[in-house]
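Dear colleague,

As promised, here are the two records you asked about, laid out in our usual form so they can be pasted straight into your sheet.

NAME FIELD: protein one
SEQUENCE, THEN STRUCTURE:
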Amino acid sequence: MIRGLYNAAAGMLTQENRHDTAVQNLANVNTPGYKQVNSVARSFPEVLISMMGGSSDVPTPTIGKLNTGVFAEEALSLYQQGVIKASSKPTDFALVSDMEMTDPATGQNIKFDGSGKFVSANGEVIYKPEAFFTVQDQNGQIRYTKDGSFKVSTDGRLLTSTGYQVLDSNNRPIVLTGSVDSFKVDGQGYVLDPKTGARGQQIGVSVVGQPYQMVRDGEGVFRIDDPQGAGVRLLAGNDRVEVRQNYIETSNVNASEVVVDMNTALRAYEANQKVIQFYDKSLDKAVNEVGRV
């Protein structure tokens, strides 16, 4: 009976985490570049139950397996591209990315599923590479973001909406030399001279080969603890990535799907709550009524 209480409590905690994740997604449905998060639940290891107290001459009979509950293991981000919307601000940017990869087994282009994953014939899991703006936090640490709603500081530095420094392809701060109205960038991210049209600094765009190794760091940015293991590299000329000025990538949150998931988590939470109340009443009877007999 006590084991049932623990299992139901674990279920409540898992559904609470699932509900909180859905609320977070809904709160960021209008946040540029936000990527939807899905809560992943896992079951605790099963245990094999055997009968106790038997004779040493008789083999102990096996009763069966027992599941020991569930827990919220992790939260996975979906890196599907959001809708690209036109903007009137010259400091708004969007990355239009459609990276291609070849299946090493067949030599054909990979068709990734909705989550950006592909499983080859030999069981190898391949993830779709994703492109991110390269930025720097206040401590000088490299971070990555899809939020291209930039702004310009008083000293001409290009910043993210939350104040992170936007870097160029050499990890140097991008500084505007002219007015914001004359700020022009081509499709490869090069800042164009307003008078001659000559290319200057290139907006830093990083391609991440293993995007599921990225960790949310708050304020719309991600960090990567092992850049080499995650396959981080600079944007190459043959990559199918375009930098679009005067555009912004919206959140990829599916609001209707998230609302359904939130309500499902609430109902499951209530069901586990009822189970705990049932066990509580049963224990009450066992202690206060059966104990008097």
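NAME FIELD: protein two
SEQUENCE, THEN STRUCTURE:
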Amino acid sequence: MIKIEKHLSNNVTDVNSFLDSIAEEMWDDLNPLINPADPSIGHHPNSMIENLSSLIEEVKNNKYKKKIGKEISERQLSFLQYLSTPNKLKSIVTAKPDDFHVFEKEILLHIRPDDLFKKRGTTHSSTDFGKRLLSTIFNYERYRKTESCYNRYIKMKFDSAICPYCNANSVTIVENTNDKGGEFRLLFDLDHFYPKSKYPYLALSFYNHIPSCKTCNTTYKGSKDFKISTHIHPFHRCFDSSYTFELDNGVLSDKTPTSVKLTKNIGVIDNLVKDLELEVRYKQQLSIARIPYLTRTLYKNRHLLKPEFVGTSSHSNLVELLDAYGLVLDDSSIMSTQYGKLQRDVTKMFDVQKTILR
């Protein structure tokens, strides 16, 4: 529930440069050279670049044109030739979230949406051509199983983190003791923020992959159409700066909390809370998140939550007690602690003069 950049700032000095290097590395991994010592020999047959070339030749074939029709094949070819312009494919793989809509706009000058997907209600399914793109050029399923994918998220400290969408379920990486497969297992999904069924050309874009729990990605999000203009993207905006958890005011008079709501800050445009049903989910998890204990502790010690007590032994003891409870004192660690955002916001209800949190 913070930007992934903020999560990384605990371990990386220059986060933007670090992420740029990760995206560049991903491009290189997806397009290995046959002989790194001699780039002129070309790329591996399974690289994105070579798969694009092969698909272009397939679409050019007269038999293919006859099968799907001249008009459709011409649109497909125009789209593929757009992808083959110098550095275009690389720019899509390494694109920042702000650039996704630019590529969408450019691509729709070459091909129609119904060439890529079919829409039913709020979900999308790939056309035959969309599936072809996902099985050749933008083969996410193959990438997901690679050692380079595991290593990428180990570098990004997702070997022990919490889902950036819900801040409730863990995402982690463990060693693979099975002889088959890679050295590690990712115990989380890589959500395609822009769903690959609708945007197959973003299926291997680094910033379109959000490490997330299966509950958020599979149970609630599915193929819903998320965009940075309508939903908070964890590489683009900070949930913590956009929403505040609020309990029923009775907790301020020592009543056990029974409900919670997420209040959107003024000017924030977002449908993430609604589409992931976060309020309903959190209402059922107040006890699991140990909120009753936290509110009782804060109520009991409310007299210490004044500036004049800061630096006293009593106030220091309270901070130590809350730290031992697991309260995230620094907001940059929210993604490392289950329910860290909720617990901080509850604390702010009592600590209105900000004597505890940073």
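A couple of things worth noting about protein two: The longest helix spans residues 15-30. Strands lie at 117-120, 123-126, 160-162, 170-175, 184-186, 189-192, 209-212, 243-247, 260-264.

Best,
R.
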